[in-house]
Automatic annotation (TrEMBL):
It comes from Jezberella montanilacus. Residues 121-148 form a coiled coil. One of its GO terms (cellular component) is efflux pump complex. This is Multidrug efflux system membrane fusion protein. Residues 317-384 form the YknX-like C-terminal permuted SH3-like domain. Residues 121-190 form the Multidrug resistance protein MdtA-like alpha-helical hairpin domain. Residues 81-222 form the Multidrug resistance protein MdtA-like barrel-sandwich hybrid domain. Residues 227-310 form the Multidrug resistance protein MdtA-like beta-barrel domain. Keywords: Cell inner membrane, Cell membrane, Coiled coil, Membrane, Transmembrane, Transmembrane helix. Gene3D superfamilies: 2.40.30.170, 2.40.420.20, 2.40.50.100, Helix hairpin bin. GO terms for molecular function: efflux transmembrane transporter activity.
């Protein structure tokens, strides 16, 4: 009997515990639901706004002739350089030129005292005149002897001797004439003249100095700078690109720029390619010639040379700034009709400082993003900014259109 009563008590307590547990669960659920209701009832500000368009500048893919240049470092060299030296010895009595003057062929550069050489010339002429008179006298005697021989008045030996004497004076006259020519040449050498046109450098002698023949120092250096040459180098891998058009008879244009490679100094033509490759540097030399009418090029000046080897006709080109790089290769952002941009992978070809040839990926007329690419992603809305738009106008609308028509972005 007591066991049954105990069993009943346990059963009653179990029911009570189960009821309390269920009550606790219900209370917990009710509390969570009320908290959620309160949280949803708290205002969180205005609803999310639409995506803000990114301001960008566009440019169209252009079809234009694209020049391919090879670049090399070069040095300006004079077309001709002459160190003027004296060929005779004597005192300098005249230097009529000014340092830096331009001279023509035959212009007087310096004059050496000619008096000793004039005396030598006069002596040589006197000797020639003396031997000429003896020669003439010997010829007259020969005629007389020949007449007497025909009359059997003198022996033939006398005539033969006179013939030999005439020939002797003939030889003396030749020697005398050579002495006269040499003396005249020495006298001419006292006038030092310009053998080529060009510009004079700094003179090394003044009036009153004694010059010796073939002095190694020279009087002055004369350089011909119109025309002028530029010698530059290219890697041996570029040899065929240069030789092929040359062998085809094409005249290759060469532009030279200053040391910073920003300002073009002159334009000329390639004249020759060296006949060997420098094995130590793996390069070969080329020579180009320029008229240099404005004296923009100066001997020994360092320049950057660009040689035009090929022109691609109607190539699809974009600005180099519009081409982006990723791990998968180059790409561009292309404007879509709905005012968003799409990523287009491209295959690029030849490049210059500011233009790139696009071989595949976009078509001529497509509009690509030139500025503002750092804030873009695929599908982003854009707002086209026009440099020519009035202040405060905000440029074009997101679709890239203006009321009353459309305008292509400004390109180079």
């Amino acid at each position: 009997m007591p066991d049954r009563r105990l069993l009943n008590v346990v059963r009653e307590n179990s029911k009570l515990l189960i009821g309390l547990g269920l009550f606790a669960v219900v209370c917990a659920i009710a509390w969570i639901v009320s908290v959620r209701i309160k949280e949803n009832a708290v205002p969180k500000g205005p609803p999310p706004t639409a995506q803000i368009p990114v301001a960008v500048k566009l440019e169209p893919v252009l079809a234009k002739d694209f020049d391919i240049y090879l670049r090399g470092l070069g040095t300006v060299t004079a077309y001709a350089t002459v160190t003027l030296r004296s060929r005779v010895q004597g005192e300098v009595i005249q230097i009529p030129f000014k340092e830096g003057d331009k001279v023509k062929v035959g212009d007087l550069i310096a004059r050496i005292d000619p008096r000793p050489y004039q005396v030598a010339l006069d002596q040589a002429k006197g000797t020639l005149a003396q031997d000429r008179s003896q020669y003439e006298n010997a010829k007259l005697d020969l005629k007389r002897y020949e007449t007497l021989r025909d009359q059997k008045s003198i022996a033939g030996q006398t005539v033969d001797t006179q013939v030999a004497l005439v020939k002797k004076y003939q030889a003396l006259m030749l020697t005398d004439q050579a002495a006269v020519d040499n003396a005249q040449l020495q006298l001419d050498f006292t006038r030092i003249v310009a053998p080529i046109p060009g510009r004079l450098g700094l003179r090394q002698f003044d009036v009153g100095n004694i010059l010796t023949s073939n002095d190694p120092q020279g009087i002055v250096v004369l350089t011909q700078t119109q025309p002028i040459n530029v010698i530059f180098t290219l890697p041996e891998s570029s040899l065929e690109e240069v030789r092929a058009p040359l062998l085809a008879g094409k005249k290759l244009v060469v532009d030279v720029y200053d040391r910073p490679d920003t300002k073009r100094l002159a334009q000329g033509y390639l004249t020759t390619v060296d006949n060997q490759i420098d094995v130590t540097t793996g390069t070969f030399k080329l020579k180009a010639q320029f008229t240099n009418d404005d004296d923009a090029l100066f001997p020994n000046q360092f320049v950057n040379a660009r040689i035009l080897v090929k022109t691609i006709k109607d190539a699809a080109t974009v600005s180099a700034a519009s081409v982006q790089q990723s791990s998968q290769g180059p790409f561009v952002y292309v404007l879509q009709d709905d005012g968003t941009v799409a990523i287009k992978k491209v295959k690029t070809g030849a490049t210059t400082d500011d233009r790139v040839v696009v071989l595949d990926g976009v078509s001529v007329g497509d509009k690509v993003v030139l500025e503002g690419t750092d804030k873009l992603r695929a599908g982003a809305k854009v707002r086209v900014v026009d440099d020519n738009a009035p202040n405060g106008s905000g440029g074009q609308n997101p679709a890239g259109r203006r009321p009353g028509g459309s305008t292509s972005p400004k390109t180079k």
